[in-house]
Design goal:
Blueprint lengths: L2 H15 L9 E7 L2 H8 L5 E9 L15 E8 L6 H9 L9 E2 L2 E2 L5 E5 L2 H18 L6 E4 L3 E3 L7 H4 L1 H11 L1 H9 L2
Parallel strand pairs: 6-7
Antiparallel strand pairs: 1-3, 1-6, 2-3, 2-8, 4-5
């Protein structure tokens, strides 16, 4: 992580520190990062992450499904231990595993349900997310298309989508390589 991004993360962490949860309490964060298989795969091993569930967020339907989730984004709900990581670090991690400049989706997954977003639950999360987004825009020298949206209901996806990369490593590898995800992210982030 570069120094300006680290400074933004640190500043956002200080803002969030005033509302830190009690010791041992887990928190959640919701992100939409294109294909939820990749979003789950890319963040599940981050420090402090205890669980990641894929599903749908941001829409009006009371019961979205993979076959019918119009208006919803494919999303992940991350359960994390705030004594091991901060919300700001998770947001920075999330941004560095997507192309935040693409307004229409992610890599080979294009369309409304593949757009990116950080869902925020309160003013401290909004401040942290906005600070990281601004730093990412500065770092990339481009506008960031990822939306910062209020969190709403998260609808858990179908069982066969949960832990897809772990349960189906060959199929997921074919998808990821065929999509060109790693090459596209390297082109965005230079790593």
């Amino acid at each position: 992580m570069n120094k300006p991004l680290f400074a933004a993360v640190a500043a956002a962490a200080l803002l969030a520190a005033n509302v830190a949860p009690a010791a041992g309490a887990l928190k959640t964060a919701v992100f939409a990062g294109g294909c939820f298989w990749s979003a789950e795969h890319d963040i599940e091993h981050a420090k402090g992450v205890k669980d990641v569930v894929v599903g749908y967020a941001g829409g009006a339907s009371a019961s979205p499904s993979y076959e019918d989730h119009e208006g919803h984004l494919e999303a992940i709900k991350v359960t994390y231990d705030p004594s091991q990581t901060s919300y700001s670090l998770l947001v920075a991690n999330f941004f560095h595993h997507i192309d935040p400049t693409d307004p229409d989706g992610q890599i080979c997954d294009q369309g409304p349900s593949y757009r990116t977003a950080v869902f925020v639950a309160d003013p401290a999360e909004r401040a942290a997310a906005e600070a990281i987004k601004a730093q990412v825009a500065k770092e990339l020298g481009k506008p960031v298309a990822t939306k910062i949206l209020p969190v709403g209901p998260f609808h858990v996806g179908e069982g066969y989508h949960q832990d897809y990369a772990r349960k189906n490593p060959m199929a997921y590898a074919r998808y990821r390589i065929g999509c060109g995800r790693d090459a596209a992210l390297k082109a965005v982030w230079g790593r």
